[in-house]
Amino acid sequence: MLKWPFVHAKGSLSVKRLVCVSNRISVPGNGSGAGGLAVGLTAAMSHTGGVWFGWSGETSETPSDTPQVVTHGNIEYATIDLTPAQVEDYYNGYCNGTLWPLFHYFPDKFKTAPVTYGGYSESVVVDENFVLRVPENLDLAGTAPLLCAGITTYSPMKHWNVGPGKKVGVVGLGGLGHMGVKFAHALGAEVVVFTTSPGKKEDALRLGADEVVISKNADEMQKHVGSFDFILDAVSANHDINAYLHLLRRDGNLTLVGAPEKPLEIAAFNLIMGRRSISGSPIGGIKETQEMLDFCGEHNITADVEVIPIQKVNEAYERLLKSDVKYRFSIDMESLKSE
After folding, report:
1. From the CB of residue 279, how many other CB atoms can be counted at a distance below 10 Å?
2. How many Cβ atoms are within 10 Å of 336's Cβ, its own excluded?
């Protein structure tokens, strides 16, 4: 029976959502035979104590949604039975909602659990099936956000066949939106950026937009009614999504990658008339992420980043709250050595 095992040291709870696993790593001092590397959505996770994964080698046709937990000292082992199809889903990055892996990181309260340094590690041993190859021509600082903002915007564009002859809108010009503009342009589409900030027009054109629309200007919006094949909505603030659904042509799609805090109100007839659709998209699996990286290598695409030392992370956070970054921070981990 194939099991999805994880192990943690008991302590105060902190939850991270994980997106890929390995089954070949040395875990010193564990003695349990459990192995694996957890890679989180955040670029760097450092914990004293942690979580490791591995496969037992067989599959089950009768999966279990309830983890089976075994306690040994201050270590808990838990497994979830998976079918072969579910294993494939995990590998590709799309998981059944009841089995989406939410794993727990715990501090090593009892000082006996092995240590994992996550994104602060200098080296790891990983199964080759879960390793991504970065093209040599790409700057690593600008490549790091591709594993989040990059694949988040690339995946839905590929799914909805963005390419030459298609008119694509990108709502919002931030960390996600600026990557959406770069990809849509490189894929050969006509690209229109929607923003509430007139000051972002020049930057949007630099990134590859063919036109910039100030969304607060009703006349500018009206010019594009019923003309878009695809719109990528990268705004996480509350906004009127109906204003953009109205811009879709027949069978057009709007995909959400931004996540507003409050539920969005949708007028049904904005979907019914024109057979329009709205959908959402998370990140992507290993295969598609590698495809995205190769595409970036071919087109020399990286994220626009500001590299900072770890000592300025609190300052960077405060700037993030003010949207004062173009368009991602990358932390130079070498700066840890100066601590």
Report:
1. 11
2. 13
Rounded to whole angstroms, how far apart are CA atoms 321 and 158?
31
| CA distance linking residue 224 with residue 231, whole number of Å | 12
Beta bridge partners of 328: 305
Buried/exposed code over 215-231 (b: 16+ C-beta within 10 A; e: otherwise): beeeeebeebeeebbbb
User: How confident is the model over 65-103, as pLDDT tens digits?
Assistant: 555 555 545 444 455 555 666 656 655 554 443 333 333
Set out the domains of the chain in order of their start, with CATH numbers: 6-130 (no CATH), 140-280 (3.40.50.720)
What is the rounded radius of gyration, in angstroms, for the C-alpha atoms of the chain? Answer: 22
CA distance 59 to 114: 28
Backbone angles phi, psi at 314, to 5 degrees: -70, -40
Order of strands, edge to edge, in the sheet holding 6-9? 6-9, 75-79, 68-72
Look at the alpha carbons of 129, 131, 134, 136 in this order and tell me if their dihedral is positive or negative: negative
Q: Mean pLDDT, 10 residues at a time, over the chain (339 residues)?
A: 34 28 27 27 28 39 55 51 61 44 41 58 75 93 95 97 97 96 98 94 96 95 96 94 95 96 92 95 92 97 95 92 90 83
Contact 118, 44 (CB under 8 A): yes
Q: Do residues 247 and 270 touch, judged by C-beta distance below 8 A?
A: no
Cβ pair 141, 331 in contact under 8 A:
no
> What are the structure tokens assigned to 147, written together?
């594993």
Nearest alpha carbon to residue 33 among 66, 3, 65, 63: 3
Residue 119 CA to residue 193 CA, distance in Å, equals: 34
Please state whether beta strands 38-40 and 14-21 pair in parallel, antiparallel, or not at all (unpaired).
Answer: antiparallel
